[in-house]
Amino acid sequence: MTDRRNIKLVIAYNGAAYHGWQRQAGGVDTVQQRVEDAATRVIGHPVTVSGAGRTDAGVHAAGQVANFHTTNLSIPLRGLRRAMKSRLPRDIAILSAEHVAEEFHASRSAVAKTYRYRIYVAPGRPVELCGQVWHYWKSLDAERMRAGAVRLLGKHDFLGLATSAEIRRNTVRTIYRCEVSQGDSEIIVAVTGSGFLYNMVRNIVGTLVEIGRGRWGPDRIDRILASCDRRDAGPTAPPDGLYLMSVEYPPIQ
């Protein structure tokens, strides 16, 4: 019998009030710190929570995945989830808790992530959606954006769509899905990939918006992928409209 458990959490949060997911020095308020504090109080010993994605300040999640190990073998998962809920602020929710294999790691075990970005396209400011969407007051051509989005599909070097702060040497990723949909006042960009570089999704959105407003043609994507030059891509979209929707893992054998 093992002397500890590995517990997987699925977490939703509104990131507007936080300096991102990752714990930081100096008492900066982050989602990871809040979850760790709640888990530590419930479990009865210090807990380190590992997240699947290091969402930036102001970025939200509907399906962030995290895991932690504990030597507390007695507390049931239902009780753990309920107790953590009572110790978390209203803008963070534990959606589920389950036992997973000892080797499971929320980030290293992931095989795909899905992000969604919301762009509110209308002249009037959507006050009720403040901090949840990117308000873009000019019209955008969703068809042009779709034509650009499909050019991102497949395995490419995405260095040209990473922020200069990116330090990983391997910048090749695979995009499985990149779709642009339009509702009454919103354009949604949904992207699923094997992984993402720093600010990659926000840079993709910023580039698609430049295509949608007519500054560039959809073939601008080809130029960015060929040159690997960040200067060829569009601006970084603000964090407000970005959501980590889900994280996928290999099936249990």
Describe the structure.
This protein has helices at 31-43, 77-86, 142-149, 200-212, 220-227, and strands at 5-13, 50-51, 60-70, 92-100, 112-121, 134-136, 154-157, 172-182, 186-193, 242-248. It has 253 residues and is of the alpha+beta class. The protein has 2 domains: 5-100, Alpha-Beta Plaits (2-Layer Sandwich), CATH 3.30.70.580; 112-248, Pseudouridine synthase I, catalytic domain, C-terminal subdomain (Alpha-Beta Plaits, 2-Layer Sandwich). Strands 1, 2, 3, 4, 5, 6, 7, 8, 9 and 10 form a 10-stranded mixed β-sheet that branches. Helix 1 (31-43) crosses helix 2 and helix 3 (142-149) crosses helix 4. The protein is globular, with a radius of gyration of 19 Å.
